[in-house]
Target: Holliday junction branch migration complex subunit RuvB
Amino acid sequence: MNWDDTAQPADDTTGRLVGSAADGEDQAVEAALRPKSLAEFVGQERVREQLDLVLRAARQRGATADHVLLSGAPGLGKTTLSMIIAAEMEAPIRITSGPAIQHAGDLAAILSSLQEGEVLFLDEIHRMSRPAEEMLYMAMEDFRVDVIVGKGPGATAIPLELPPFTLVGATTRAGLLPPPLRDRFGFTAHMEFYEPAELERVIHRSADLLDVTIDTAGAAEIAGRSRGTPRIANRLLRRVRDYAQVKADGLITQEIAAAALGVYEVDARGLDRLDRAVLEALLKLFGGGPVGLSTLSVAVGEERETVEEVAEPFLVREGLLARTPRGRVATPAAWAHLGLTAPQSFGGGGSGQGDLFGA
Ligand SMILES: Nc1ncnc2c1ncn2[C@@H]1O[C@H](COP(=O)(O)OP(=O)(O)OP(=O)(O)O)[C@@H](O)[C@H]1O
Ligand SMILES: [Mg+2]
Model:
């Protein structure tokens, strides 16, 4: 499963149980559930191995680690990894984000107050302002910034030496980073969606921390509905825990997990009500497509943007829906998932015979 940099982030309308962005409750519990070391960090084997080498080598040399770029969809563990990098280097960490840095001066103030070896975590680095970005180039490469004093023709640039530091940048959209910025990172970690077995381990680990009892089948049931995303797995676990506590004796089994998530309308594959409404309209009203986005949106009673940015990315990723120049098309897997049979004349939706409906 690859994270596609050009895709829209599967970002979310608030309150969506399978939304990948953090909501208020997530933020409150995430600190408690964050792995604190690379060894504790589940999955992402390749990234872990590479990062382990980078950090170990820097430690052996007694040097500050190279700058690291973390790219991947929301909820896959970028913030968590940034904190792990600092912990593994036994270095303090300073946390800020692209949108918080409006002016180059904001960045200069942060950079000039860093201690030697400190980790600067710059979240949403693709949303930094242009002048700040240019200041960052020099800071990353030469550990120096030019502070501009005065205005107009009398303005002078005073060079300021910085202590060596490690910049950890995070982005959901690596494709949006200007190449000069991307090139200044010594190591880029592309985080991918997690396999179900990895999510099961995340769930067992979180259950232990939350003092919840869950059996193997229960964890597997939640993992299968978590859209490859640890944040969603943790969130679903909390909802299933509520259900197990109120309706049963607290133990989470496969039946309990399935029943609980049924209440929340998250189906066996992690689709929620909106996702299913889009698929159902595509199959039942338009025979599997192709159908234009606007028409599909009207049929579902949602805004175009909601269908395109909230529902579709996951449906495409799951191979249930395809975007074609002539419109949206359901795949054979979509028919199977909703338990419907594709009409003969549409050959499962992709045979290009959808002209009847226009695109
Ligand atoms: N590999 C992992 N092992 C265990 N838990 C994880 C892992 N990755 C993420 N998590 C958990 O998932 C939650 C979300 O992770 P995190 O906040 O690091 O995501 P993120 O990539 O920074 O998301 P965003 O793009 O929204 O900032 C955290 O509670 C964290 O504990
Ligand atoms: Mg984050």
Remarks:
- Confidence is low (pLDDT under 50) at residues 1-11, 346-359.
- The longest strand covers residues 144-149.
- The chain has 14 helices and nine strands.
